[in-house]
C-alpha cells in the first residue's frame, strides 16, 4: 500500500522525492530536445517569413520564433547591449529576505533562505531567468542534492526554451517536450523547475517577449545595414580609369587593365610612359551617405524605447541632466522586473526549499529584489544640523547611522570627529531646559502657587479700606458714592509689582520651552 504524499507544489501536485535528484530536461543528440537541429532564421529574413514566424508562435509553434530571438541578441550589438543593460540592472540588486514573522522558528527559516540566496550560483540563476524578457519565458531546472538530511540546490541549469511547449487550452501552462508526446508535452515535475514568465503585457506569455516587439525594427535595420554596405562598396571608392594612346597595342591594353585592377589591392603598378591612370571621385547620390545611418540610428532608438523605456541613456547627444531624469524611468522598470522575478523565486525555489526541509508553513519568508531610491545625504545632514542642537528630540543615533550607511561602532574603536568644548549661552540654556523638561502646565501652576501664597499680604492694602467703608455706610447708595473716592486713595503699588514679576517669569518660561 503506497503512502499518502505529504507535500504538494503550488499546483497541488504531489511531490515524489526520489525524482528530485533526477535530470528531466537534459538535451539529446536526436529527438525533440536536440541542440543540433538549429539552422538559422535571421539569415535572409524577409517580411513574409517574419510574419509567418510570429503567427506560428502565437498559434503554439514557437521554435522558429525562439531561435530568431536568440539570433537577434547574437547578431545586433545595440539590441544585445540594451537587453544586457536591462538584465544586469536587476541581477546587480542585492536581494533581501523578509521573515514571515518575528517568531524564533520563522527567523531560523529566513536565515536558511538567506544563506541559500547568498550562494554564488544565485546571481547566475537570476540572469538566466531574465532571459525570459526577450523570449517570453525562461525555465531553469533545479538539481537537488540531499546532504545531512537537508535538501539544497546543487546547481541551477538553464534549459533551452525550445525544449518546452505551452498547453493547447490556455497557452499559459508550460510543459516539457518528450519524444513520446511531441506536440503536447508532459507536465513539469513539481519542485524541479523555476519558470519565469515576465508580465510585460496582458495576454499569453509567448506574445509578451521583447523580441516579438523589436523583430520588425531589427529586420529593417538589417536591411538598412546591407544596403549601406552595398552603397559604400559602389560609391565609397573612386573610379580607377586607365587611358591609353591611339597607337597602343592589345598587349599594352592588357597591361593597363591588369594595372588598374591591381590598384584595388596592391595600390602599386608600372605602366609604359604613353599610358596613365586617373582616379575619378564617385558621384554622390542625393542624400545617400546620410540616409542609411539615419535610418539605422532611428531604428536603434525605437529598440531602446521598447527595451529600456527611453533613449536618453543610450544616445550620445543627450545631456547628463536628461539622462538622470530618464534613469528614474529605468528605476521604475528595474524594480518591476525585480518584483516579478522575486515572486518567481519565492514560488518555485523558496517554498520548495522550506517545504522539503521544514515542512509546510502557514506563511513563508519572502525574497525581495528591489533597489531603494538613494538617500539624500545632504538634506538629511542639513536637518540634523538644525534639530540636534535643540537637545532631547528623540532621535536614535543608530537610526541616523543606518540612514547614512554607517555601521554601529564597536567597543574600543577609534571614532572620528570631536566633541565641542563649549557652546553659546543660549544653546546651553536651551539644552538644559530640554534635558530637564517637565510638564509646562505644572510649571505654570507652580508659578501661580508662589504668587497665591502671599495674596493676603498683597491685597490687604486694597481690600481693607473697602471693608472699612462698607462697615461705615448705612445703605448701598452711600457705599457707592464713597467707593469712587476710595479708589483714588487706594495703595496698589505692591499688587502691581507682584503682577509684573509673575508676568515676566511666565514670559521667560514660555520663551525657553518654545
Could you characterize the architecture of this molecule?
With 514 residues, the chain is mostly helical. It has four domains: 17-214 and 326-368, no CATH class; 238-281, no CATH class; 377-411 and 423-435, no CATH class; 440-513, no CATH class. It has 17 helices and ten strands. It has helices at 47-58, 63-75, 77-91, 104-117, 121-129, 132-135, 210-235, 250-262, 288-308, 320-358, 377-387, 397-404, 425-435, 440-452, 455-472, 476-489, 493-513, and strands spanning 96-98, 138-147, 150-159, 164-166, 174-178, 181-187, 193-196, 239-243, 276-280, 366-368. The chain has a three-stranded antiparallel beta sheet with strand order 3-2-7. Strands 4-5-6 form a three-stranded antiparallel beta sheet, with no helix packed on it. Strands 1-10 form a two-stranded antiparallel ribbon. β5 and β6 form a beta hairpin. α3 packs across α5 (121-129) and α15 (455-472) packs across α16 (476-489). The longest helix has 39 residues, at 320-358. The model is unreliable at 432-436 (pLDDT under 50).
The total number of structural domains is: 4
Measured distance between first and last alpha carbons: 81 Å
Structural class: mainly alpha
> What strand line-up does the widest sheet have?
3-2-7
| Content of β-strand | 5-15%
As a percent range, the share of helical residues equals 40-55%
Question: Could you describe the largest sheet, including whether it forms a barrel?
Answer: 3 strands, antiparallel
Count of extended strands = 10
Rg, alpha carbons: 43 Å
Number of helices: 17
| Mean pLDDT across all amino acids | 81
Which runs of at least 5 residues are low in confidence (pLDDT < 50)? 432-436
Q: Please trace the helix and strand order, writing H or E for each element.
A: HHHEHHHEEEEEEHEHEHHEHHHHHHH
What does the overall shape look like?
elongated
Amino acid at each position: 500500500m503506497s503512502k499518502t504524499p505529504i507535500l504538494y507544489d503550488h499546483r497541488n501536485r504531489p511531490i515524489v522525492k526520489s525524482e528530485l535528484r533526477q535530470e528531466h530536461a537534459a538535451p539529446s543528440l536526436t529527438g525533440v530536445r536536440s541542440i543540433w537541429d538549429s539552422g538559422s532564421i535571421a539569415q535572409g529574413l524577409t517580411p513574409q517569413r517574419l510574419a509567418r514566424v510570429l503567427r506560428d508562435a502565437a498559434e503554439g509553434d514557437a521554435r522558429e520564433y525562439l531561435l530568431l530571438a536568440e539570433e537577434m541578441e547574437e547578431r545586433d550589438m545595440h539590441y544585445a547591449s540594451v537587453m544586457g543593460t536591462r538584465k544586469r540592472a536587476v541581477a546587480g540588486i542585492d536581494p533581501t529576505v523578509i521573515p514571515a514573522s518575528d517568531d524564533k522558528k520563522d527567523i531560523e527559516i529566513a536565515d536558511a533562505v538567506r544563506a541559500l540566496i547568498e550562494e554564488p550560483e544565485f546571481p547566475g540563476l537570476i540572469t538566466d531567468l531574465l532571459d525570459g524578457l526577450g523570449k517570453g519565458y525562461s525555465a531553469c531546472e533545479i538539481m537537488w542534492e540531499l546532504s545531512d538530511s537537508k535538501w539544497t540546490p546543487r546547481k541551477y541549469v538553464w534549459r533551452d526554451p525550445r525544449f518546452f511547449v505551452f498547453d493547447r487550452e490556455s497557452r499559459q501552462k508550460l510543459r516539457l517536450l518528450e519524444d513520446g508526446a511531441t506536440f503536447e508535452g508532459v507536465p513539469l515535475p513539481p519542485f524541479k523547475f523555476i519558470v519565469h514568465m515576465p508580465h510585460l503585457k496582458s495576454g499569453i506569455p509567448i506574445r509578451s517577449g521583447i523580441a516579438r516587439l523589436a523583430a520588425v525594427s531589427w529586420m529593417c535595420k538589417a536591411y538598412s545595414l546591407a544596403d549601406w554596405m552595398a552603397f559604400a562598396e559602389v560609391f565609397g571608392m573612386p573610379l580607377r580609369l586607365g587611358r591609353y594612346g591611339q597607337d597602343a597595342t592589345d598587349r599594352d591594353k592588357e597591361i593597363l587593365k591588369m594595372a588598374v585592377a591591381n590598384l584595388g589591392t596592391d595600390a602599386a603598378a608600372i605602366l609604359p610612359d604613353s599610358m596613365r591612370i586617373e582616379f575619378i571621385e564617385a558621384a554622390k547620390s542625393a542624400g545617400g551617405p546620410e540616409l542609411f545611418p539615419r535610418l539605422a540610428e532611428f531604428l536603434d532608438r525605437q529598440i531602446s524605447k521598447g527595451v529600456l523605456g527611453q533613449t536618453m541613456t543610450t544616445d550620445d547627444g543627450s545631456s547628463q541632466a536628461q539622462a538622470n531624469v530618464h534613469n528614474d524611468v529605468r528605476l521604475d522598470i528595474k524594480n518591476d522586473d525585480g518584483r516579478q522575478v522575486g515572486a518567481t523565486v519565492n514560488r518555485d525555489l523558496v517554498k520548495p526549499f522550506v517545504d522539503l526541509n521544514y515542512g509546510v508553513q502557514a506563511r513563508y519568508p519572502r525574497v525581495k529584489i528591489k533597489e531603494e531610491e538613494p538617500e539624500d545625504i545632504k538634506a538629511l545632514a542639513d536637518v540634523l544640523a538644525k534639530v540636534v542642537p535643540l537637545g532631547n528630540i528623540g532621535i536614535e543615533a543608530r537610526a541616523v547611522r543606518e540612514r547614512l550607511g554607517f555601521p554601529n561602532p564597536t567597543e574600543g574603536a577609534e571614532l572620528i570627529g570631536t566633541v565641542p568644548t563649549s557652546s553659546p549661552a543660549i544653546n546651553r540654556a536651551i539644552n538644559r531646559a530640554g534635558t530637564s523638561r517637565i510638564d509646562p502646565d505644572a510649571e505654570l501652576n507652580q508659578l501661580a502657587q508662589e504668587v497665591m501664597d502671599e495674596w493676603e499680604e498683597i491685597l490687604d492694602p486694597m481690600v481693607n479700606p473697602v471693608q472699612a467703608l462698607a462697615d461705615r455706610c448705612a445703605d448701598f447708595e452711600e457705599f457707592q458714592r464713597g467707593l469712587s473716592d476710595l479708589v483714588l486713595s487706594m495703595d496698589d503699588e505692591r499688587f502691581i509689582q507682584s503682577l509684573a514679576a509673575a508676568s515676566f517669569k511666565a514670559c521667560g518660561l514660555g520663551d525657553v520651552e518654545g
